[in-house]
Amino acid sequence: MATEKEMNQASFIKIAKEINAYSEIIKSRQNQKQVILNDFDKERGRYRAGKISKASLASSVPRVRKELQRLNDEIRRNIRNLNKTADRAKRFATHQIPKNFKVSLTGISLAGGKKKKRTVHRTRHRTRTRSRAKKKR
């Protein structure tokens, strides 16, 4: 009896959930980064208004830079993980290529795929006399 491939949906759902989780983490880190940028912009506005000193603004700059760099690194790491998981999903999907069945009066059998046409590559060797003759012209 002929049987067609069946996709393991539980495994594919697991991969899809991982992709979703990584994308949510990336989005939340991007939101955190935006909050930090907005806070620093407000702090700079307070400095312009004269409510805080230049020294207090300058002291927050290294802290903000360090936090932004940490978030950038985390976003990049999660993007790499997301790409790896997406590649795994692609490989999983390519394993689902359907089988070719041949149906006849005698029954059902697996049909072979199309055979590739073989080509023979021949190289042409030019003689030295031919190239010398061209140079003399």
List the helices and strands and how they pair.
Layout: H1 9-48, H2 54-94, E1 101-104, E2 107-110, H3 128-136
Helix pairs in contact: 1-2
Task: Name the features.
137 residues; mainly alpha; two-stranded antiparallel ribbon; 3 helices; 2 strands; 66% helix
Can you summarize this structure?
The longest helix is centred in the middle third of the chain and has 41 residues, at 54-94. It is built from 3 helices and 2 strands.
Task: Write up what this structure looks like.
By secondary structure, the protein is mainly α. Helix content is 66%, strand content 6%. It has a domain at 8-97. It contains 3 helices and 2 strands. The protein has a two-stranded antiparallel sheet with strand order 1-2. A hairpin with a 2-residue loop joins strand 1 and strand 2 (107-110). The longest helix has 41 residues, at 54-94. The protein is elongated, with a radius of gyration of 32 Å.
